[in-house]
Amino acid sequence: MIEPHVPAPPGSRPSWGGSGGSGGSDTPPSGGRGTAARLPVRPGVGRFLVLAGVFVCAACGLVYELELVALASYLIGDSVTQASVVLSVMVFAMGLGSLAAKRLRRFAAAGFGAVEAVLALVGGSSAMVLYAVFAWTGAWTGGWGGLGADGPRLLLVAFSLAIGVLIGAEVPLLMELIQRVRRQDAGGAVADLFAADYVGALVGGLAFPFVLLPFLGQLTGALLTGTVNAVVGAALVLGLFRRDMTRRARRLLLAANAAVLALLATATVLADDFERAARHAVYGQDVRVAVRTGAQEVILTGDTDGRPLALFLDGRLRVRADDERRRHEALVHPAMSGPHTRVLILGGGDGLALREVLRHPDVRRVDVVESDPGLTRLARHDPGLSALNEHAFGDARVRVVADDAFRRLRTTPTGAYDVVISDLPDPGVTAGTKFYSQEFYGLLRRVLAPGGRLVVHAGPVLAQPRTFWTVDATLRAAGLRTVPYRVGARDTGRAPGPDRTAAGTGRAPRDWGFLLASRGAPALRLDPAGPRPRTVTAGSLERDARATARTRIDGLPPSTLVHPRY
């Protein structure tokens, strides 16, 4: 936290009466910095109200920080990087704001009111402005390497910097105000102020993921937080310290807060329309389903007027109906060459990998472990998606488990499955990094029956070779032998709707990379007695495996839970 400036005690102890004039003149009130405030209430009540204001403002400030982190992670991907950038810039800016506020301590009441009005406007509107830039420019894709030429990323840094400066400016001004209410020793004042600040931060930090985000969403949640911030800041200053300000200052502050509240209220009313327009700008005009399941945002587009169905999860293109069969046939069928009566699918809530597994008639049981029951529910009941997966979830051999894959594997008996299919998000997505760790693959090795096979979707080979071969190194470090292969997308670089996706992928993948693994040397082949895939042949698998091997990067260390390499 920022070390506040503690004002020096005045030369003589002030009188604590609250009757010193009406404050109606246009000249500043007598007594500047360190002079007792002329309160309309008793000092004890005034002190309580200041600390209550500190509590609310701290809660709002932390919500702004978390909002920027969440939005940046959603739009750019790699939540660790986004959290590091936003929070480090904010903490640095808080120091700048604390230093800058030293010049405002003489006008602490008016200064604090102005800071809160600006903070409410900037923090409350930040999510909407950033999302608008993303939706109508699409310029957030890629890494931070091109930061110097990337205006939207600089805008994120600018918001972090501005909000941090304003939050940092609060502490010295509040310290001045609380000392004007009732002077006390510096240590006691700091303890009281920071206690209220930290408790408020706790409430804001818990309210964001458990109340604001699930019930209001990112945009409305930020706007409502700004509204609360403006109301509390204005009420504290205009209600408690109005006699410390000139009439002109009070009028300007009242007008500024009224304008801020009007803007935030208007934005809140229009938030739903704005979100629909922005969603159409991102995904095209044929958005058919848009739901937040609690775990992620699920978007379905197309499947009407000849447009192919496309499924987006948190902005990332997951399924494209006109090309998904190549991916899922390549993922499933090589692993099914051998015993496959008991199959485990990790992820795969869209039901498309399950569809390919069920094409093998001698499969007796399939367990699908999907952490998002909302996605599997959509895959069961949406006409377009259920038709694409051929109503796979209605098969009596299928059991769906809504659980975290890591937690589920820890309680799975040894040797429980002949085939394990890992159809999880790419390793570059921070939330899924643990599913590409040596520890996770150690659990998978344990649940494989003798002669069992594991197949892992390891991301695009051509676009991310280092990530792909790190997955390979991690599997081998877990005691598994691997065969790498890939399959190319049919229409390179083309995505449905706008030619971009959220969260850093930029375009539809050029290829999909897979790793077939087992305790012994796995053979990359198709089951001669099994069904014939439509898009994959034994010859194409062999050619793709040779092409994939030529991209190998040797000497990469494995990824672990405590040392992720992706």
Which labels suit this protein?
566 residues; 11 strands; seven-stranded mixed β-sheet; Growth Hormone, Chain: A; elongated; disordered N terminus; four-stranded antiparallel β-sheet; Rossmann fold; 2 domains; alpha/beta
Detailed description of the structure:
This protein is an alpha/beta fold. It folds into 2 domains: 43-276, Growth Hormone, Chain: A; 322-549, Rossmann fold, CATH 3.40.50.150. Helix content is 49%, strand content 12%. The protein is built from 15 helices and 11 strands. The protein has a 7-stranded mixed β-sheet. Strands 1-2-3-4 form a 4-stranded antiparallel β-sheet, covered by helices on one side. A hairpin with an 8-residue loop joins strand 2 and strand 3. The relative contact order is 0.10.
Topology:
Blueprint: H1 43-76, H2 79-100, H3 108-137, H4 151-181, H5 186-240, H6 247-269, H7 271-283, E1 287-292, E2 297-301, E3 310-313, E4 316-320, H8 324-332, E5 342-347, H9 352-357, E6 365-369, H10 373-381, H11 383-388, E7 398-401, H12 405-410, E8 417-423, H13 438-447, E9 448-459, H14 465-477, E10 481-488, E11 511-518, H15 538-549
Parallel strand pairs: 5-6, 5-8, 6-7, 8-9
Antiparallel strand pairs: 1-2, 2-3, 3-4, 9-11, 10-11
Write the element-wise H/E pattern from the N-terminal end onward. Answer: HHHHHHHEEEEHEHEHHEHEHEHEEH
Helix count from the secondary structure assignment: 15
Number of strands: 11
What structural class do helix, strand and pairing data support?
alpha/beta
* Poorly predicted sequence stretches spanning 5 or more consecutive residues: 1-32, 141-149, 492-506
| β-strand amount | 5-15%
CATH architecture of the largest domain: Up-down Bundle
Quickly name the level 1 CATH class of the largest domain. Answer: Mainly Alpha
Per the CATH scheme, the topology name of the largest domain is Growth Hormone, Chain: A
Numbering strands along the chain, what is their spatial order in the largest sheet? Answer: 7-6-5-8-9-11-10
Largest sheet: 7 strands, mixed
Cα-atom Rg, whole angstroms?
A: 29 Å
Task: Summarize model confidence as the mean pLDDT.
Answer: 87
End-to-end separation: 31 Å
